């Protein structure tokens, strides 16, 4: 449940196929363009795994997007640029994990 002035976080994790090759860079670049193309994205950051715990289960890339409302997140999900990104990126993925949560504190 959202608190007043809370942000909705959208966490996206990618595990790439072993033969993704240059597709990994293409996916990174395409995802990084989305904040300029989709006005509902309030903030955006990303990085690659550096954890020493060895619990990443093949996931190497994490993208964190923030939205002001569930409606903004929902508009992002169906936005044509997001849909086009999915079509471009899908062939390179071994696994995708998405978690959304309301910031608590």
One letter per element, helices H and strands E, the order comes to EHEEHHE
Task: Estimate the helix proportion, in percent.
Answer: 25-40%
Strand content: 25-35%
Low-confidence stretches: none
Structural class by secondary-structure content: alpha+beta
Largest sheet: 4 strands, antiparallel
Shape call: globular
Overall average pLDDT: 96
Radius of gyration: 14 Å
Overview of this protein structure:
The protein is an alpha+beta fold and 105 residues long. It is built from 3 helices and 4 strands. A 4-stranded antiparallel beta sheet has the order 2-3-1-4. Helix 1 packs antiparallel against helix 3 (80-89). The protein is globular and about 45 Å long. The mean pLDDT is 96.
Task: Tell me the layout of helices and strands.
Blueprint lengths: L7 E9 L6 H15 L5 E6 L12 E7 L2 H9 L1 H10 L3 E10 L3
Antiparallel strand pairs: 1-3, 1-4, 2-3
Helix pairs in contact: 1-3
Question: Gist?
Answer:
The chain is 32% helix and 30% strand. The protein is α+β, with helices and mostly antiparallel strands.
Keywords:
alpha+beta; globular; 4-stranded antiparallel sheet; 3 helices; 4 strands; 105 residues
């Amino acid at each position: 449940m959202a608190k007043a002035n809370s942000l909705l976080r959208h966490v996206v994790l990618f595990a790439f196929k072993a033969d993704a090759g240059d597709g990994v860079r293409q996916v990174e670049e395409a995802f990084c363009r989305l904040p300029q193309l989709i006005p509902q994205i309030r903030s955006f950051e990303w990085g690659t795994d550096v954890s020493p715990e060895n619990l990443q289960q093949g996931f190497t890339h994490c993208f964190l997007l923030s939205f002001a409302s569930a409606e903004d997140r929902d508009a992002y999900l169906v936005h044509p640029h997001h849909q086009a990104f999915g079509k471009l990126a899908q062939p390179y993925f071994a696994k995708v994990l998405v978690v959304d949560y309301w910031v608590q504190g």
